[in-house]
Amino acid sequence: MNIAMNRIMKEFKEVVTNESNGIDLKMPEGELTRNVSNLGSQSNKKEIFLTGSIQGPPDTPYAGARFHVDIIVVDTYPFNPPKVRFTTKIWHPNVSSVTGAICLDILKDQWAAAMTIRTVLLSLQALLATPEPDDPQDAVVANQYKKDRKLFEKTARHWANVYANGPNPEPECDAAVASLVEMGFSEEKARSALSTMHWNTSDALESLCKG
């Protein structure tokens, strides 16, 4: 763990002293390390818990919004990649709209020990600018991206406005969500159903009623 901890402290300073690119990294007080017991093992592993954020890239539906991620650094870091997921809900082909799981090659088999947490945050920022719909994490979003780009951008802007303080509201989306909320559905479920059903209120209502 000393190798991982020393490396993370160095990388933390690297990010904090250079915030001009719209990325940020924090160490939650009291939660820097966690003990993780391995099933079937008498040894404990420690993980380093961080939180990061990225500014939405310009000229994208995410522009002006800020998205947060949880970062868990394993004790074999930097030889193995960190575990990263979005905690801010986002409508993007390569991020699960439900869990925040990310499909990004450097978080899997394309990771190299020379890479850093800063590399990860910048790569996520680049992913927001250039989605990869043919290698999706969320098939519904990817399908919308490929079949109706304008509708995808509208939905992504709406989610960015609602969940990530984005500056561009979508009044039609807000009204559609409100109409289903008035029927007794939660705002989050209404928004998810409408987004999945391409903002067709009747189809979204049918989906919600089916449970």
From TrEMBL:
Domain UBA: from-to ranges: 168-211
SMART domains named in the record:
UBA, UBCc
Question: What CDD domains does the annotation carry?
Answer: UBCc_UBE2K (cd23800)
Task: Tell me the ranges covered by the UBC core domain, including all copies.
Answer: 3-165
Active-site residues are C103 (glycyl thioester intermediate)
Which superkingdom?
Eukaryota
A single Gene Ontology MF term assigned here is: ATP binding
Entry keywords, A to Z: ATP-binding, Nucleotide-binding, Transferase, Ubl conjugation pathway
Family the entry assigns:
Belongs to the ubiquitin-conjugating enzyme family.
* Protein's UniProt name: E2 ubiquitin-conjugating enzyme
